[in-house]
Amino acid sequence: ITMSTSDQTELCYPHLGNASCRRTVRPRSVSVLLYIILSSISVLIVTLNLMVIIIISHFKKLQTPTNFLLLSLAVSDFCIGFLFIFQILLMDGCWYLSAGWCVFYTVFVVVVASASIGTIVLISIDRYIAVCDPLHYPTKVTPNRAKMSIILCWFCSVFYTFVYIDVIKHPGIFNSCTGQCTAYIHLVAKLMHLFFCFIIPVTIIVLLYVRVFVVAVSQARAMHSHVAVVTPHGSLKVYRSELKAARVLGVVVVVFLMSIFPFYIVSLLAGATKVSSSSLVFVIFLYLFNSCVNPMIYVFLYPWFRKSLKYIISLQILKSGSSEANIL
Fold it and tell me: Is residue 290 packed enough to be buried (19+ CB in 10 Å), middle (13-18) or exposed (0-12)?
């Protein structure tokens, strides 16, 4: 959240003198271009994820356990679209809002990021059961269980955040100068965050998807040679739709991992060595930009998403009974 650089030459609050933080100075044309590009990305993230939220919430045929998980991911991505605005404000290294807004931003970032990672883990578990144990999938993964898992995921994210940060109790007390937005994070808390929000989730996701990939490959070979696949539960047939969903969500998971790896690597390096502000800004924006990518993946890989978008654009969604439309 805090950014600093060696080439800062202007103060965030000139009237405060040395009490003020220093800001990054860029050519006006560069600053304007950056603000336009980043603001456009923010609007795009909010708009695309709002489409996903409306589509899954409106069309009853799409209200499956897997899509409820996509809805949870879209909600967290939608929130990140708004958080993008705060990150744009921090682009020159100055925080011009109140300490209260700093608390809100800090807390919201951790809650949403934790919920995103938790949802990706749930998606991996969902695909693991669907592909590796398809016979029992409808009874093991029900819409109500999916909803309860999502609620629990968000609740745990909120609880974890209040344990993780101390800025809530002491807003602004850890700022070294006026114009900062910093949170005190103990070394133990940092290690806890590394394990609970990176190492453990990523390990679970990778292990589950490796298993899904192995089963999917063996199933594809069996289908090709018309031989049944023997699983621990007997001879089961994995539905093509479940395999396709696993591929699509596999892309979502891989893109997500690609966006968080640089962020955590740079975060770890920042604790041991000096990291340039440009590197920090880049990995933060890469992490946030992932929220824009997910809906794009659905557009290209999910026919029902494209069909649903046509319903919204043509305003057919406003017609009576449109929620019952068969768009699968």
Answer: buried
- Nearest CA to 1 among 185, 140, 208? 185
Residue 191 corresponds to which tokens in the numbers above? 């290690």
- Name the residue range of residue 218's domain: 21-324
pLDDT (average), residues 10-32: 79
Would you state the structure tokens that stand for residue 306, as one six-digit string?
């494209």
Give domain status of residue 195, yes or no: yes
**Angle (CA) 109 258 51, round 5°:** 60
Cα–Cα dist 307/15, whole Å: 56
Q: Where are the beta strands (DSSP E) in 25-159?
A: none
pLDDT digits (tens, 9 = 90+) for 211-226: 877 777 776 666 666 5
Count structural domains, the chain: 1
Q: What is the CATH number of the domain that holds 144?
A: 1.20.1070.10
pLDDT in tens, 134-143: 788 888 889 9
SS3 of 242-296: the string is HHHHHHHHHHHHHHHHHHHHHHHHHHHHHHHCCCCHHHHHHHHHHHHHHHHHHHH
| In-domain check, residue 10 | no
Whole-number Å distance between alpha carbons of 70 and 56: 9
Residue 7 falls inside a structural domain: no
